[in-house]
Amino acid sequence: MADKLRFATAPPTGTPKAADLSAVLYREYALLARNRVYLILGLTPMVVYLLLVNTSLSNLVRVVDYKGVQVPFAVFLLPMTLAMSVVSAAGTSGMALFQEELSGVATQLWSYPLRRSRFLLGKMIAGVSLVLGQSLLGLIAAVLIFDLPFDLEGWLGLLTALALAALAFNGLYLALAITITDYQAFMVLSNVSMPVLVFSAPSLYTVGSMPTVLQWVSKINPLTYAINGMRDAAIFGFADAWGSMLVLVVMAAVGYTVGGRGLFKRARNI
């Protein structure tokens, strides 16, 4: 009978660990940071509106009646400026997907044993932090320019609504970037969508002062719930803003579900 072969050591039976989340985040931040043109373009509209539009209109219109409360117009306009920053930064985050494919990074990335959950989580964290960071810069500038009369609950509510808006719109633009395979089409859509979303929402005006058609459009405009959530939370507190915040949570869940599935499907076709 032939002797059995015996090995002093045995090969590992477990599957190799996927790339660590920190490495995924480093790659995402490096990809976003190199896109300086889009970062500048994302910050410019927010700074222009803060320095020119908000200051000029607040001198023209001192206060506005919002749900029975006299609100300084500069305070009323602040959620619009932050919402513009959220949409702009979310578009930049979506464009990073096309940069990955055009540069060949996506092919190299999926050649390694990378866990899908880690990749999606890293992309979500990096994208949302970019949106939040850009918006917080605008908020700091607004604090320096205007006298914002918010109490502690108002600040907490504003920041919470801002974070939910960042999650929601980063997820929505991720889903759009996955659905639209043409880079130029997505770039045009992301640039055109910002003024359309902003001016068909109650940004510069209350819903009651909008034309009837725009009032209908504002009901299905996702930016309406981001602006209302930040405005109601800052002025009245969480109790008046929970409805808009709930819509933002649902939008985020839908966006990341659609975007995540599309992202993994696209990875299989690389």
What is the structure about, briefly put?
The chain is mostly helical. The chain is 75% helix and 3% strand.
> What percentage of residues falls in helices of 4 or more residues?
over 70%
Which sequence of strands runs across the widest sheet?
1-2
Mean pLDDT: 78
Summarize the main sheet: 2 strands, antiparallel
How many extended strands?
2
What shape does the CA trace take?
elongated
**Uncertain ranges:** 11-16
Rg estimate, integer Å: 22 Å
> Helical element count?
10
How much of the sequence is in beta strands? under 5%
H and E order: HHEEHHHHHHHH
Distance between the termini: 51 Å
Query: Which structural class do you get from the secondary structure elements?
Result: mainly alpha
Question: Can you tell me about this structure?
Answer:
There is one protein chain. This protein has ten helices and two strands. By secondary structure, it is mainly alpha-helical. A hairpin with a 2-residue loop joins strand 1 and strand 2. Helix 3 packs parallel to helix 6 and helix 9 packs antiparallel against helix 10. The longest helix has 31 residues.
Please specify the SSE layout and strand pairing:
Elements lengths: L20 H13 L2 H25 L2 E4 L2 E4 H31 L1 H5 L6 H30 L6 H28 L3 H17 L12 H9 L1 H14 L2 H31 L2
Antiparallel strand pairs: 1-2
